[in-house]
Amino acid sequence: MALFTSYRCRLKHLNILLFTDGDATELQFGRDVLLPVAEEYLLEHSYQGGLTLHFFVAGEDEVADSVRDYACLEDVVPLVAILDLAEGSKFLLEDGVEVSTATVHNFVTRYTHDKLKPLPIRPGAAEATGAS
């Protein structure tokens, strides 16, 4: 958790993460999937004052493990998640959906059109604070 805290300032914006097993082939796969989506997102949203969604490919390392632990994400790969630390919410690509440029593009589009249901980053946190 301490390692995540040290990287939290870098993750303060909206982030989409594609978690992989960390080998070179999987990291390249993640890059190949996310790059076209990121480029299109940047073109479509640059008029709004710049990029608000940051795209990351994560491998098996301490930072990725800390993010997974903090956001209560399953240790499965590949896993695609949008994290909104400011709002304390996360959005997950549905189980069983093949990770591809098309499915990630659709996921981001549904997110930008408010078609995804947010989940709390830390389940139980809303109940503990009395928030609804």
Automatic annotation (TrEMBL):
A GO cellular component entry from the record: nucleus
GO annotation, biological process: negative regulation of protein ubiquitination; negative regulation of Wnt signaling pathway
PANTHER family named in the record: NUCLEOREDOXIN
Protein name stated in the entry: Nucleoredoxin
Superkingdom, taxonomy of origin: Eukaryota
Any GO molecular function: thioredoxin-disulfide reductase (NADPH) activity
